[in-house]
Amino acid sequence: MGGPEIERLIELLARLPGLGPRSARRAALTLLRQPRTRLLPLATAMEQAANSVRTCDACGNLDSRNPCSICADEHRDHSMVCVVEGVGDLWALERAGVHRGLYHVLGGTLSALGGTGPEDLSTAPLLARLAGGEVREVILALGATVEGATTAHWLAERLASFGIAITRVAQGVPMGGALDVLDDGTLAAALMARRS
Amino acid sequence: MGGPEIERLIELLARLPGLGPRSARRAALTLLRQPRTRLLPLATAMEQAANSVRTCDACGNLDSRNPCSICADEHRDHSMVCVVEGVGDLWALERAGVHRGLYHVLGGTLSALGGTGPEDLSTAPLLARLAGGEVREVILALGATVEGATTAHWLAERLASFGIAITRVAQGVPMGGALDVLDDGTLAAALMARRS
Ligand SMILES: [Zn+2]
Ligand SMILES: [Zn+2]
Q1: For FRET with A122, which of A31, A153, A170, B71 sits at 20 to 30 Å CA-CA?
Q2: Is residue A52 helix, strand or coil?
Q3: How far is A163 from chain B (nearest CA, A)?
Q4: Nearest residue, CB atoms, A69 vs list B3, B35, B48
């Protein structure tokens, strides 16, 4: 239609979540019409992100610093660790501003159907952090799905030996609901009403 | 949340048509999780498109060749020129495979409200092509909007002196409808039933 470069751009854009073939074409067109002011800046932003963003060794967050800016922040409460399924959940909680402690990103939930076992989840950095002795409470902020509940139960058992409070966000997370689509108020309520 | 690189990436993605802030974050996350296999290839595709894609001097199409691959195609019917508002319409007609001639991209429609006057539309390359003497029919494939109708009328008058057939796609384009959201069958019917 306009050479292999355009086809390739549309093809890769169409693979983004939220963009189908039609909106990928519209996005490509918008970018191609302003190559210097829109296309190249986005290309540069992607390259810089690819070259700088790493997974935090301490918590699993994505950041251009390692340890990430949350782990490195002395003003945050290092005695509380909120365990989430993915970085998207961490972002949602940060946007809501409802958790002033640290995070741990599991990288998924246990799922027999999805073939996700304990070995596929990141727990070693969390255990290492707990072994450090500074943490007094672990908040399990997993989705209110069967997998989320299974994972929370499994993790609570694994952490029991540390003798610290293990709480779980409860009220406000709708059944079957993922965390990162909730509004700030719901997230705040869920975190406030957490239970052991 | 994860450093300025991530913020910038999300901000630029959110400006794409079809992506709001929420889907921009989801898209950024998907890309950041696979920097080498997803983020860098997209960055490269964007850079290559920005460096290679130009506006065709002859018709206004976007292509890595100039004249574009349509204008340069000897197997297409160079005696028919289909006038469209934008490159998105050209793409829609090409996907439908209903026009075997050439195109001319106006770059907009006349709009008093939008402040688009005759001087904002690209007509010089079309006039130059018509002066060449090879074109026997100009098909006006503008949207069935007030602006599309006004523009078609204005253009038909400007082209009258060339003494060639000026037709207009009619049947099948719904009132108020833009061309590039129509299905292939509708586009084919509209083009077949064009009228002078
Ligand atoms: Zn961290
Ligand atoms: Zn061309």
Answers
A1: A170
A2: helix
A3: 31
A4: B3
Q: Between chains, do B39 and A19 touch, taking CB under 8 Å as contact?
A: no
- In which residue ranges of chain A is pLDDT below 70? 1, 170-177, 179, 181, 189, 192-193, 195
CATH 3.30.980.10 fits A4-52, yes or no: no
From chain A, pick out residues whose CB is under 8 angstroms from the CB of B91: 1-2, 25, 29
Q: In which residue ranges of chain A is CATH 1.10.8.420 found?
A: 4-52
| B64 → closest Cβ in A5, A86, A88 | A5
Contact list in B for residue A33 (CB cut-off 8 A) is 62, 87
**The tokens of A19 are what?**
């963009």
Q: By C-alpha distance, which of A34, A27, A36, A29 is closest to A1?
A: A29
Please check whether residue B43 is in contact with residue A50, taking contact to mean a CB–CB distance below 8 angstroms: yes
B12, B47, B61 ranked by CB distance to A2: nearest: B61
Domain with CATH 3.40.1360.10 in chain B: 62-179+184-189
Q: Is the pTM of this model over 0.95?
A: no
CATH architecture of A62-179+184-189: 3-Layer(aba) Sandwich (3.40)
Distance (Å, whole) CA B80 – CA B100: 8
Q: Nearest CA to CA, how far is B22 from chain A (Å)?
A: 9
The answer to whether ipTM exceeds 0.90 is: no
What digits encode the pLDDT tens for the residues A105-145?
Answer: 999 999 988 899 999 999 999 999 999 999 999 999 888 77
If you search the block for the tokens 């365990």, which residue do you land on?
A83
